[in-house]
Write a structure and sequence with these properties.
The protein is α/β, with parallel strands linked by helices. It has 21 helices and 15 strands.
Length: 606
Amino acid sequence: MKQRLFLFLRFYLFWIVFFQLQKLVFVLVQYKLMGDITFVDCLQVMAHAFPLDLSVASYVTAVFGLLMLISNWVDIKIIRYISHTFTAIILGVALFVVIGDNGTFPFWGYHWDKSIFSFLQSPQEVLACAVWWQWILATILFCLLFIACGYIYLKWLNWDDLQQEHSLATRFWQSGAWLLITALLFLPIRGSVTVSTMNTGRVYFSNNQMLNQAAINPLFNIIESLSENTFNLEKYTYMSTEEAQRLTQELLPIDRWDKTGDIEILSTQRPNIVLVILESFSSNALFAMPNLQRIVKEGIYFSNAYSSSYRTDRGIVSLMSAYPGQPTSSLMTVPSKSKNLPQIGKSLKQEGYISHFYYGGDEDFTNMRSYLIDGGFDNRVSDKDFSVQEKWSKWGAPDHIVFDKATNEIVRRYTSQQDERYLDVILTLSSHEPFDIPTTNKFGHLYLNSISYTDSCLGIFIDSLKQSNQWENTIVILSSDHGYPYPEGITRDNPLRYKIPMAIVGGALKQTKEVTTLCSQIDLIPSILNEMGIDISSYKFSKNILDTTHTEFAFYAFNDGFALLMPHDTVVIDAKPDLLLRGATAITNKQAHAIMQCIMEDIENL
């Protein structure tokens, strides 16, 4: 057992070192793209990449662990041959990916993902990507590295002392031990015992995007992309591109931003902005939100607003990037796509704003960290910034603790640095299943109790901001990330499932008003930025909801479906069989399909 364990650990270490050295190779090969970096930066790349490298090494070592188990019952020479063959295959694949990835990265700008398999279906096009001497050089390099790594592997792993136990009882207990050891590799593979699993977004740590790219394990990137929701453009192609764009422009005319709108809201051109994203807040549960009802009366309340999707990762992108949700995909989970989206953080950073993000949970969940860094959020608070005692809920620190931290920091900044302008984003989490909150069972309903609890935290937060000396220069944007199926029985396609509370409050508002026009959460941020005189041309799918003369509509996506809400008609479509679930107007039906197609075509080009 001792000899097998040493062999196992040496095998594990071999792959960890291999993947760590791959990071240095990437930095050296891509030195022209890396910019002005230091040796410390390289060490940080390796340190932040380590969990991802450990995960991939664990995938490979899990097979070796099973071979150690089988070696108790099968001739050692056979197991050694299988191990060498397996290692040669994995080593060949890994070197092929590393060399190919380094070769294409300067042109593609992203690591290999599952799209490489579609390229391999056309080998002639792959061959055309490089001249003959580059292919020869790559082949020679592959062979040399394969021989060198293979030699180190054979010298590093010593099979000579491996003996097979003769005792049947010893074989049984050792087999059980190897089963347990191999099973323990699930922890580094998954990367966490919480709800967050290992993902490429976890290695993001720098504003220098090339350092983040250097930390990504290219093998893991391919594995992750294979499990991602796909952007199946063919599935959502219903008409010619020209017709889809024409129908979409009937709802989103090119000149829709020419007018600032008939509702002027700001008393100052550059207010501090606080965006509060309320987890799962549904308009159907407004009676459980007395503080929100009180607050919105003091500002601009959009009483006919709808979320664009059905999950937090989609909702954040819909709000902060004003980008519509998709039926079976999440842009946030694909950093190579999400980095190209517009975002409120990017827009305001160009205007000199300093951005902060507050969340009590794991910022690596669904690649949120990479999305935030790409969006200019240099200052982020997440679960790692709270003590163990504070993180007692399943998702992390509950809302009152997060709001307290945000309040203290925001008020302190407002007091000490009055010449600066800030964007602060707070994402709540306590109104997410399993709804574990520190208050009593007020409504006899878990969801309503959690909503009421977060609402109380929001009320205290707003009242505290009102006491700051910058309240007159501040607006607070309030919106749910998505709706919730309350009351029970609301189906995934039902528009009531997506109706959400949405408002703008604050001392920097000119007026109070209830806006009853039909709108979407993707309209909110660009409308405010437009009034601030900030360029919003990159926000392609939103409209100005401060201009009540625009065409009223809201578009949302649900799992394998999408819907278009109009004042006169609501069309809901199941995308899998392209089945009309609700609605009857033919033109609305066609417009819904056109918008969906335009979204997917746009994603294709991100």
